[in-house]
Design a protein that fits this description.
heterodimer; A: mainly beta; seven-stranded mixed β-sheet; four-stranded antiparallel β-sheet; 11 strands; 0% helix; globular; B: mainly beta; six-stranded mixed β-sheet; 12 strands
Protein backbone atom coordinates (compact mmCIF):
# COMPACT_ATOMS: atom_id res chain seq x y z
CA UNK A 1 0.00 0.00 0.00
CA UNK A 2 1.47 3.36 -1.04
CA UNK A 3 -0.08 5.28 1.82
CA UNK A 4 -1.56 8.76 1.57
CA UNK A 5 0.12 10.58 -1.29
CA UNK A 6 0.43 14.34 -1.34
CA UNK A 7 1.80 16.57 -4.04
CA UNK A 8 3.74 18.68 -4.44
CA UNK A 9 6.18 18.01 -1.60
CA UNK A 10 7.30 21.63 -1.64
CA UNK A 11 5.66 24.69 -3.16
CA UNK A 12 7.13 28.15 -3.34
CA UNK A 13 4.95 30.86 -4.80
CA UNK A 14 4.46 34.58 -4.80
CA UNK A 15 1.75 36.41 -2.95
CA UNK A 16 -1.42 36.63 -4.98
CA UNK A 17 -0.88 33.43 -6.93
CA UNK A 18 -3.22 30.48 -6.84
CA UNK A 19 -1.96 27.37 -5.06
CA UNK A 20 -3.41 23.89 -5.42
CA UNK A 21 -2.44 21.08 -3.11
CA UNK A 22 -3.33 17.51 -4.00
CA UNK A 23 -4.03 14.39 -2.03
CA UNK A 24 -4.66 10.77 -2.89
CA UNK A 25 -6.05 8.87 0.12
CA UNK A 26 -5.47 5.22 0.80
CA UNK A 27 -7.75 3.04 -1.29
CA UNK A 28 -10.81 1.98 0.67
CA UNK A 29 -10.64 4.82 3.16
CA UNK A 30 -13.88 6.79 3.31
CA UNK A 31 -12.81 9.80 5.36
CA UNK A 32 -10.30 12.44 4.32
CA UNK A 33 -8.89 15.29 6.36
CA UNK A 34 -6.87 18.40 5.59
CA UNK A 35 -4.68 19.76 8.40
CA UNK A 36 -2.38 22.76 8.53
CA UNK A 37 0.68 22.91 10.75
CA UNK A 38 2.41 26.11 11.81
CA UNK A 39 4.82 26.93 14.60
CA UNK A 40 2.37 29.39 16.13
CA UNK A 41 -0.82 27.35 16.05
CA UNK A 42 0.36 23.77 15.83
CA UNK A 43 -1.93 21.37 13.97
CA UNK A 44 -5.29 22.75 12.87
CA UNK A 45 -8.05 20.81 11.16
CA UNK A 46 -9.20 22.72 8.09
CA UNK A 47 -11.88 20.46 6.65
CA UNK A 48 -12.88 16.85 6.49
CA UNK A 49 -14.85 14.75 4.05
CA UNK A 50 -16.84 11.59 4.63
CA UNK A 51 -17.69 9.57 1.54
CA UNK A 52 -16.57 12.52 -0.63
CA UNK A 53 -18.98 14.92 1.10
CA UNK A 54 -17.61 17.85 3.14
CA UNK A 55 -18.78 17.33 6.72
CA UNK A 56 -17.14 20.16 8.60
CA UNK A 57 -15.28 23.07 7.04
CA UNK A 58 -15.38 25.34 10.07
CA UNK A 59 -11.60 25.24 10.27
CA UNK A 60 -11.13 26.78 6.83
CA UNK A 61 -9.61 30.15 7.69
CA UNK A 62 -11.08 32.32 4.93
CA UNK A 63 -12.97 32.32 1.67
CA UNK A 64 -9.62 32.23 -0.06
CA UNK A 65 -9.44 28.56 0.93
CA UNK A 66 -11.53 25.91 -0.79
CA UNK A 67 -11.41 22.12 -0.87
CA UNK A 68 -12.96 19.56 -3.16
CA UNK A 69 -13.21 15.82 -3.31
CA UNK A 70 -14.59 14.90 -6.72
CA UNK A 71 -14.15 11.18 -6.11
CA UNK A 72 -12.98 8.73 -3.47
CA UNK A 73 -9.39 8.76 -4.66
CA UNK A 74 -8.60 12.45 -5.00
CA UNK A 75 -8.91 15.71 -3.11
CA UNK A 76 -7.59 19.23 -3.62
CA UNK A 77 -7.05 22.17 -1.33
CA UNK A 78 -6.89 25.48 -3.17
CA UNK A 79 -5.77 28.88 -1.94
CA UNK A 80 -6.64 31.83 -4.15
CA UNK A 81 -5.11 34.34 -3.77
CA UNK A 82 -2.30 33.13 -1.55
CA UNK A 83 -0.75 35.30 1.17
CA UNK A 84 2.52 35.01 3.13
CA UNK A 85 0.61 34.04 6.29
CA UNK A 86 -0.58 30.92 4.49
CA UNK A 87 2.96 29.56 4.64
CA UNK A 88 2.76 26.27 6.54
CA UNK A 89 2.90 22.53 6.14
CA UNK A 90 -0.38 21.14 4.89
CA UNK A 91 -1.18 17.53 5.74
CA UNK A 92 -3.75 15.26 4.22
CA UNK A 93 -4.93 12.23 6.17
CA UNK A 94 -7.38 9.42 5.54
CA UNK A 95 -9.23 6.87 7.62
CA UNK A 96 -11.58 3.97 7.18
CA UNK A 97 -14.42 3.32 9.62
CA UNK A 98 -15.60 5.06 12.74
CA UNK A 99 -13.51 7.37 14.93
CA UNK A 100 -11.11 5.38 17.06
CA UNK A 101 -11.66 2.12 15.23
CA UNK A 102 -9.11 2.76 12.56
CA UNK A 103 -5.86 4.56 12.43
CA UNK A 104 -5.62 7.96 10.82
CA UNK A 105 -2.95 7.79 8.15
CA UNK A 106 -1.11 10.96 7.26
CA UNK A 107 0.65 11.94 4.08
CA UNK A 108 4.12 13.42 4.16
CA UNK A 109 2.75 16.93 3.84
CA UNK A 110 3.23 19.84 1.46
CA UNK A 111 5.56 22.58 2.61
CA UNK A 112 4.05 25.83 1.28
CA UNK A 113 6.04 29.03 1.21
CA UNK A 114 4.31 32.18 0.02
CA UNK A 115 6.76 35.01 -0.60
CA UNK B 1 -16.44 20.66 22.31
CA UNK B 2 -13.11 19.14 23.18
CA UNK B 3 -9.59 20.39 23.69
CA UNK B 4 -6.14 18.99 24.33
CA UNK B 5 -3.37 20.63 26.34
CA UNK B 6 0.22 19.53 26.16
CA UNK B 7 1.85 21.25 29.06
CA UNK B 8 5.43 21.23 27.79
CA UNK B 9 6.39 22.64 24.43
CA UNK B 10 9.92 21.24 24.73
CA UNK B 11 11.42 18.44 26.80
CA UNK B 12 15.20 18.04 26.78
CA UNK B 13 16.49 14.77 28.16
CA UNK B 14 19.71 12.79 28.10
CA UNK B 15 19.95 9.50 26.28
CA UNK B 16 18.89 6.44 28.34
CA UNK B 17 16.99 8.62 30.81
CA UNK B 18 13.25 8.14 31.38
CA UNK B 19 10.80 10.64 29.94
CA UNK B 20 7.17 11.63 30.44
CA UNK B 21 5.28 13.85 28.03
CA UNK B 22 2.17 15.27 29.59
CA UNK B 23 -1.27 15.51 28.02
CA UNK B 24 -4.55 16.69 29.50
CA UNK B 25 -7.85 16.87 27.68
CA UNK B 26 -11.34 18.18 28.16
CA UNK B 27 -14.46 16.82 26.54
CA UNK B 28 -18.17 16.70 27.20
CA UNK B 29 -18.39 13.16 25.83
CA UNK B 30 -16.48 9.90 26.16
CA UNK B 31 -13.33 9.93 24.12
CA UNK B 32 -10.69 7.95 22.35
CA UNK B 33 -7.12 9.12 22.96
CA UNK B 34 -4.06 9.00 20.73
CA UNK B 35 -0.39 9.87 20.61
CA UNK B 36 1.20 10.67 17.26
CA UNK B 37 4.89 11.18 16.53
CA UNK B 38 6.40 13.34 13.83
CA UNK B 39 10.05 12.70 13.01
CA UNK B 40 12.00 15.49 11.32
CA UNK B 41 10.86 16.07 7.74
CA UNK B 42 8.24 13.34 7.94
CA UNK B 43 4.48 13.11 8.34
CA UNK B 44 2.66 12.02 11.46
CA UNK B 45 2.59 8.40 12.60
CA UNK B 46 0.35 6.78 15.17
CA UNK B 47 2.33 5.82 18.27
CA UNK B 48 -0.49 4.33 20.33
CA UNK B 49 -4.17 4.73 21.12
CA UNK B 50 -6.63 4.14 23.93
CA UNK B 51 -10.08 2.94 22.95
CA UNK B 52 -11.30 0.97 25.98
CA UNK B 53 -10.20 -1.69 28.44
CA UNK B 54 -6.87 -1.54 30.20
CA UNK B 55 -5.86 2.01 30.99
CA UNK B 56 -2.20 1.25 30.30
CA UNK B 57 -1.57 1.21 26.58
CA UNK B 58 1.64 0.04 24.95
CA UNK B 59 2.75 1.41 21.61
CA UNK B 60 5.60 1.19 19.19
CA UNK B 61 9.25 1.91 19.99
CA UNK B 62 8.87 1.14 23.71
CA UNK B 63 6.41 3.93 24.45
CA UNK B 64 3.40 3.53 26.70
CA UNK B 65 0.65 5.82 27.96
CA UNK B 66 -1.80 5.65 30.83
CA UNK B 67 -5.37 6.89 30.64
CA UNK B 68 -6.49 8.53 33.88
CA UNK B 69 -10.15 9.43 33.66
CA UNK B 70 -10.36 11.26 36.98
CA UNK B 71 -7.46 13.50 36.04
CA UNK B 72 -8.44 13.64 32.34
CA UNK B 73 -4.87 12.83 31.43
CA UNK B 74 -3.09 10.59 28.95
CA UNK B 75 0.62 11.01 29.66
CA UNK B 76 3.20 9.32 27.43
CA UNK B 77 6.21 7.57 28.97
CA UNK B 78 9.34 5.73 27.98
CA UNK B 79 11.72 4.25 30.56
CA UNK B 80 14.87 4.83 28.49
CA UNK B 81 15.05 7.12 25.47
CA UNK B 82 17.34 6.98 22.45
CA UNK B 83 18.71 9.69 20.23
CA UNK B 84 16.35 8.43 17.52
CA UNK B 85 13.34 9.33 19.69
CA UNK B 86 14.02 13.02 19.01
CA UNK B 87 10.79 14.18 17.38
CA UNK B 88 7.59 16.14 17.88
CA UNK B 89 4.88 14.29 19.81
CA UNK B 90 1.20 15.14 19.52
CA UNK B 91 -1.58 14.07 21.83
CA UNK B 92 -5.04 13.89 20.26
CA UNK B 93 -8.61 13.21 21.31
CA UNK B 94 -11.65 12.09 19.38
CA UNK B 95 -15.24 11.80 20.52
CA UNK B 96 -16.71 8.33 20.31
CA UNK B 97 -19.67 9.34 18.21
CA UNK B 98 -19.70 9.04 14.47
CA UNK B 99 -18.59 12.22 12.76
CA UNK B 100 -16.32 13.36 15.56
CA UNK B 101 -12.93 14.51 14.42
CA UNK B 102 -9.46 14.35 15.89
CA UNK B 103 -8.40 17.36 17.95
CA UNK B 104 -4.67 17.75 18.47
CA UNK B 105 -2.67 19.31 21.25
CA UNK B 106 0.02 21.84 20.46
CA UNK B 107 2.78 19.25 20.41
CA UNK B 108 5.85 18.58 22.57
CA UNK B 109 9.31 18.56 21.09
CA UNK B 110 11.39 15.80 22.66
CA UNK B 111 15.09 16.52 22.36
CA UNK B 112 17.33 13.61 23.32
CA UNK B 113 20.93 14.57 24.00
CA UNK B 114 23.94 12.23 24.07
Amino acid sequence: DAGVIQSPRHEVTEMGQEVTLRCKPISGHNSLFWYRQTMMRGLELLIYFNNNVPIDDSGMPEDRFSAKMPNASFSTLKIQPSEPRDSAVYFCASRRGQPGNEKLFFGSGTQLSVL
Amino acid sequence: AQSVTQLDSQVPVFEEAPVELRCNYSSSVSVYLFWYVQYPNQGLQLLLKYLSGSTLVKGINGFEAEFNKSQTSFHLRKPSVHISDTAEYFCAVSGRNAGNMLTFGGGTRLMVKP
